[in-house]
């Protein structure tokens, strides 16, 4: 098995070494040379997709090794009714604070950006602590529209436990990754034979959390970092597991991920949140896939504090182009952005139809900027600038 050598404490960590890249490439070629059928590997992380596309890593892979992106973009899987709730509250006169990626995500009628253009007070923030500060500087109601996976939810929990003012509340659209992995693993169209798990989420949860998934699904999991060598090393280890028929979890990101994870962060997370079943946009109803505030924190839960009357507010059905968007199939690994007739035409980052084109972690946005299987112009410049191969 070939792995990136761990640097000594006195050494500088290097993750874009051309010789190591070639070694991993040759290892993958050797491992895939005599496969009876192609292998499909799924990752569930927008940051992984950014690195894969930006550095043209798919161009280094054997033709019978397919790496597909799953539901790893939290903005993309935020369901339309959740966006609608945020837009509704903004139009009722609250200050609505949210992350930049959520600003232009289409809801059923409009996005938060469109609501702001019509006079709503919608503010883009970079941290939930900024939303808290806004609340402390005004008497108006401030609602933080909270999105993201486990890592971001921990920060939201910390803000809630810090003693926010009475005019501050949270509209949670946080998601929890492990349950959706079960869903996509069982989709017959996906046929993923192995999973790359996101290293940053695993720093919170620990890598042992995936053992139950492996036991139930019989699919190996490798936890991976985000540099090119991290990803290539993890792919080598995952293909080796698949070839040998080994169903287990391997931690390929030991410099950050431990078996048990960050216990303090987990304590904050589960003190404030509990899992709840709900719809992930375009994918499926995911049992225990959403993170909602526990009842004892109803005083800071926007859904408990405000009457949100969506049924009488929504009216019309989504626009025709939104109905034609393939975001759901793309996030489930069933389609690629190139399969969507809207991609790069009616749907661009300047005029997004679906959430996958809005978020910097969305597959459509990433493939538009860098290319997918064929490295785009920006990706080529990155490769040339770092002398990756």
Describe the overall structure.
The protein is an alpha/beta fold and 389 residues long. Helix content is 40%, strand content 16%. It has 18 helices and eleven strands. It has helices at 18-32, 46-54, 80-91, 112-117, 128-136, 150-161, 177-185, 199-205, 211-217, 228-244, 263-272, 302-305, 310-314, 320-324, 327-331, 355-358, 363-370, 377-386, and strands spanning 39-43, 65-69, 95-99, 122-125, 142-148, 168-174, 194-198, 221-224, 249-251, 273-280, 284-293. The strands form three sheets. Strands 2-1-7-8-9 form a five-stranded parallel β-sheet. A four-stranded parallel β-sheet has the order 4-3-5-6, with helices on both faces. The protein has a two-stranded antiparallel ribbon with strand order 10-11. The longest helix is centred in the middle third of the chain and has 17 residues, at 228-244. The radius of gyration is 21 Å and the shape is globular. The model is unreliable at 1-7 and 373-389 (pLDDT under 50).
Compact description:
This protein has 389 residues and is of the alpha/beta class. The protein has 18 helices and 11 strands. Helix 1 runs parallel beside helix 10, helix 2 runs parallel beside helix 17 and helix 6 (150-161) crosses helix 11 (263-272).
What is the oligomer described by this structure?
A: single chain
Number of strands: 11
Order of helices and strands: HEHEHEHEHEHEHEHHEHEHEEHHHHHHH
Head-to-tail CA distance between termini: 21 Å
SS-based class:
alpha/beta
Binned, the helix content reads 25-40%
* Poorly predicted ranges: 1-7, 373-389
- Approximate strand percentage: 15-25%
Main beta sheet: 5 strands, parallel
Gross morphology is: globular
Strand line-up in the sheet with most strands: 2-1-7-8-9
| C-alpha Rg (nearest Å) | 21 Å
């Amino acid at each position: 098995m070939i792995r990136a050598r761990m640097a000594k404490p006195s050494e500088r960590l290097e993750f874009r070494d051309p010789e190591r890249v070639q070694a991993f490439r040759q290892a993958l070629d050797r491992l895939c040379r005599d496969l009876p059928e192609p292998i499909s590997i799924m990752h569930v992380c927008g940051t992984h997709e950014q690195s894969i596309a930006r550095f043209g890593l798919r161009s280094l892979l054997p033709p019978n090794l397919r790496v597909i992106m799953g539901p790893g973009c939290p903005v993309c899987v935020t369901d339309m009714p959740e966006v609608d709730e945020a837009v509704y509250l903004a139009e009722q006169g609250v200050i609505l604070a949210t992350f930049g990626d959520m600003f232009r995500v289409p809801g059923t009628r409009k996005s938060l950006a469109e609501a702001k253009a019509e006079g709503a007070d919608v503010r883009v923030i970079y941290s939930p602590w900024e939303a808290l500060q806004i609340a402390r500087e005004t008497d108006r109601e401030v609602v933080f529209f909270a999105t993201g996976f486990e890592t971001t939810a921990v920060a939201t929990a910390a803000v809630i436990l810090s003693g926010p003012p009475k005019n501050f509340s949270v509209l949670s659209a946080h998601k929890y990754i492990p349950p959706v992995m079960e869903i996509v693993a069982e989709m017959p169209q996906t046929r993923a034979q192995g999973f790359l798990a996101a290293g940053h989420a695993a720093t919170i949860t620990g890598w042992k959390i995936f053992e139950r998934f492996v036991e139930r699904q019989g699919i190996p999991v490798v936890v991976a970092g985000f540099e090119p060598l991290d990803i290539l090393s993890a792919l080598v280890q995952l293909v080796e597991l698949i070839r040998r028929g080994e169903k287990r979890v391997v931690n390929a990101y030991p410099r950050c991920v431990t078996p048990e994870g960050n216990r303090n962060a987990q304590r904050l997370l589960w003190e404030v949140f509990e899992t709840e079943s709900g719809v992930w946009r375009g994918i499926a109803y995911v049992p225990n896939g959403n993170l909602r505030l526990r009842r004892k924190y109803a005083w800071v839960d926007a859904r408990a504090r405000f009457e949100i009357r969506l049924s009488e507010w929504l009216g019309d059905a989504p626009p025709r182009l939104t109905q034609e968007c393939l975001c759901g199939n793309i996030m489930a690994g069933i389609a690629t952005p190139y399969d969507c007739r809207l991609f790069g035409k009616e749907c661009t980052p300047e005029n997004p139809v679906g959430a996958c084109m809005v978020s910097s972690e969305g597959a459509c946005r990433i493939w538009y900027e860098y290319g997918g299987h064929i490295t785009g112009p920006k990706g080529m410049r990155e490769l040339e600038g770092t002398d990756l191969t």
